Amino acid sequence: MTSRVLASHAVAALLLSLGCNTTNTYTSNGNGGYTSVVTNGWLAYKATVDNVREGKLDDGTMKVQIDVRSDQLNPQRFNYLFEWYDAQGMKIDSATATWQNRFIKPQETITLGAVAPTRTCSRWVLKLSDEKQPFTPNN
Amino acid sequence: MHRIAITVPAALALLAGCQNAQYQDPQGTALIVSLNKVDIQDFTSAADAMVNSMVEAGVLSKAAHQPALLGISKVENRTDTQFDTDELVKKIRVALLKGGRAQVTQQLTLGNAKEDPLGDQANQMARFQEGTDRQPIELPDFTLSGKILFDRTKAGSTRQVAYIFQMSLVDTATNRVVWEDEKTIVKQGNQNQVGF
To answer: What's this model's pTM, rounded to 2 decimal places?
Structure first.
């Protein structure tokens, strides 16, 4: 294990022990792009949004695919949650919305996808949060 | 002396990590991850994958009825733990109903078991009073069925359990499977843990 990896684990452990596991939020701007609020640098280092693709199903339901990249040199885990909003900015609750845990390999880009819970949804929000503990093969 | 008798056990309890019961967000990341059962977040995650896949396939939006009329068929629990498969099916139903994509019919049910017997009786009475009781009943566009399977294995002290959720939609007009999907949830570790 390189000293860089050890250092990054130490920083992560320190941040988590201090309760700094804040959420990074990516919000659609309604024109196929997004804005981001990154409050957790360590998390952004292992899961950062690279690219967004928005589309519509035949019945008009919105669909989104988001490429998430890891700049880490070792495997990582993170949690994500999609939220949906209508044109008035009202949150649309989904019966199946839940934080999901995802594995990402070193320097890998993965795709997170979601379909809007109703046809009235016009904007999405992707929330990323760090896993409970820094990933090791044994936890 | 009294003070010591109270303080020492309290300090020991704190050291032992005693934790008072508290509420948790059912959608959150502080839920228990178990190696011996399907957790509530597993059901939600599987239901989410199934609803997304079903909606993306577009079969519901092409049904004769809009929203599509759904009959609930057999959903089997073939795991080694006991749970009500409604923990999965109800989430799928609620998501489809709230999304305006499907409604579940009580007219045709498995084994004629009515989920709401009074609702069924009221419907029969209404049909009788309106003189429509001899007209054909409304059949579902699709029936939903599925299985939940499991696979358990071990390497040294590391245990692994996989829960495999399989669901299918059959078009009642053609008796063909028009959509099916599978979602596998794998959990690995030495013991259950709080949070993920």
So the answer is: 0.85
